[in-house]
């Protein structure tokens, strides 16, 4: 199939079949960029309420650049991959200070911003600025691997896929083309049981021709993620409990947490908790009881999170610089990891206080 015909098939199909999404109704590069950052590793339906709320509070790039990071993190809370938020904030500041608030529309300048990689640069420049760069995400790789009959996603084959997209992306409507390929992967060329009869490029699809669309591309199963135990103390002082801010350069950096940490091999939970609380707050805890443990998965590992009710009695705790004693009603003012919200939910069902 000629590149021109192929791109026209995709663009026409997209214009008829695309889902109505708020970031597709705008030409504003800031909003398009924000949506692309939020959509990384995250499903559209999860992103939608976050996107809408963010735009309500931060309607312009300038408003983000001038915002307090804690306020941004509060809006990002629960969306995960918090580095995206941190990098986006840094990038908007650079745009405001070095480019007079105007998002650069050349590949070299845009990709040099924090958190911007090949995919984001291609997506934003093609959708917001009509520049003919490819935007290749996981969905596009699957569509092309089937279309071209590529079974193994070796480096060489991935380059072949990229070169094919580069040769097909049209000078007019490159954004519609890129979004069309992605949309095709998201709603038709599904990982399992693709809806081939609804596909606009079925007649040239090698995998369909071979009746093997389900096995393209071969995906190597990931090994099992490691599992660790984490202990933490919910330390009460009257009707308030103690929280501290995680270091910015750590995982979940900038979010608030209960003091605690990973349990070492061979250590009991209570000993681990004592060690962590002495290390972090110089505090010998008076442990009252354990709350039901909860499980939580991150992208590369999972945890069992053991939280213990503790009280601050004679031994006073030495707080970190960024810490607070908060009441239950004040939880909403801070951003916490999802695992903590699971604990809050448990506690609100039973009894918050000892
Ligand atoms: P290190 O030695 O820097 O690896 O740190 P640790 O042993 O103090 O552990 P930490 O706090 O980095 O790791 C605990 C894991 O549990 C981490 O992936 C974040 C997660 N987590 C979620 N909520 C909380 C919380 O409220 N407190 C703590 N400490 N960790 C939490």
Return the average pLDDT rounded to an integer: 95
Give the biggest sheet: 8 strands, mixed
Summed up, the helix count is 14
Low-confidence stretches: none
Radius of gyration: 24 Å
Order of helices and strands: HHHHHHHHHHHHEEEEHEEEEH
N- to C-terminal distance:
70 Å
Envelope shape: elongated
Number of strands: 8
What fraction of the residues are assigned to beta strands by DSSP? 5-15%
Bound molecules: 2'-deoxyguanosine-5'-triphosphate
Category by helix and strand content: alpha+beta
The portion of residues assigned to helices is 40-55%
Overview of this structure, please?
- By secondary structure, this protein is of the alpha+beta class.
- 44% of the residues lie in helices and 13% in strands.
- The protein contains 14 helices and eight strands.
- Strands 1, 2, 3, 4, 5, 6, 7 and 8 form an eight-stranded mixed sheet that branches.
- Strand 6 and strand 7 form a beta hairpin.
- Helix 2 crosses helix 3 and helix 9 packs across helix 10.
- It starts with a helix and ends in a 5-residue tail after the last helix.
- The site of 2'-deoxyguanosine-5'-triphosphate has 14 residues, from strand 1, strand 4 and helix 14.
């Amino acid at each position: 199939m000629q590149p021109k015909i192929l791109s026209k098939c995709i663009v026409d199909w997209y214009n008829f079949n695309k889902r109505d999404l708020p970031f597709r109704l705008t030409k504003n590069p800031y909003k398009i960029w924000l949506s692309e950052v939020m959509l990384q590793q995250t499903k559209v339906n999860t992103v939608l309420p976050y996107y809408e709320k963010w735009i309500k509070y931060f309607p312009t790039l300038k408003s983000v650049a001038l915002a307090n990071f804690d306020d941004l993190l509060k809006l990002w809370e629960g969306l995960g991959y918090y580095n995206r938020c941190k990098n986006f904030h840094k990038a908007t500041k650079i745009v405001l200070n070095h480019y007079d608030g105007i998002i650069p529309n050349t590949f070299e300048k845009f990709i040099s911003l924090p958190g911007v990689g090949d995919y984001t640069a291609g997506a934003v420049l093609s959708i917001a600025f009509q520049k003919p760069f490819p935007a290749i995400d996981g969905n596009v790789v699957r569509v092309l691997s089937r279309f071209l009959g590529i079974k193994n996603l070796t480096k060489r084959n991935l380059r072949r896929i990229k070169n094919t997209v580069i040769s097909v992306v049209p000078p007019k409507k490159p954004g519609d083309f890129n979004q069309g390929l992605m949309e095709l992967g998201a709603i038709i060329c599904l990982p399992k049981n693709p809806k081939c009869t609804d596909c606009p490029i079925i007649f040239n699809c090698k995998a369909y021709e071979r009746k093997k669309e389900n096995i393209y591309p071969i995906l190597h199963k990931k090994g099992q993620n490691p599992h660790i135990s984490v202990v933490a103390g919910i330390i009460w002082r009257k009707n308030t409990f103690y929280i501290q801010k995680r270091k910015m350069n750590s995982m979940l950096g900038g979010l608030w947490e209960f003091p605690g940490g990973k349990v070492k091999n061979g250590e009991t939970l209570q000993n681990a908790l004592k060690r962590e609380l002495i290390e972090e707050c110089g505090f010998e805890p008076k442990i009252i009881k354990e709350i039901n443990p909860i499980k939580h998965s991150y992208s590369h590992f999972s945890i069992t999170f053991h939280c213990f009710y503790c009280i601050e009695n004679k031994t006073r705790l030495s707080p970190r610089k960024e810490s607070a004693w908060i009441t239950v009603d004040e939880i909403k003012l801070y951003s916490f990891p999802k695992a903590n919200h699971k604990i809050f939910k448990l506690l609100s069902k039973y009894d918050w206080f000892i």
